[in-house]
Task: structure prediction
Amino acid sequence: GGGGYSGPFAVSYGSSRITVADGLVIAGATTISVSATTVSSGNGTVYLALSYSGGSYSYSVARGSPPSQGATTAVYRLATIAGGAVTQVQYGDIYVAGRVV
Result:
């Protein structure tokens, strides 16, 4: 079940896997293209962690307990999953306020 949302970062749960649709992270003049991905199945939060180091951004998409926000890491919750039901939290592309530094 995916709750009917099918835009950027849409999270769906089926066939024992969680799929996250592709989307964009827009940080000022920088646009990071995030590819569609599959994460481990189970309950918890599906999130994107965005890091900035050495003048460039990197990201990871995972399910579980999100890491803490830090000086160089921003965490964006995409959806929560409980009992196989998806509650979408992020709708649309992600816009970073300021810069992750």
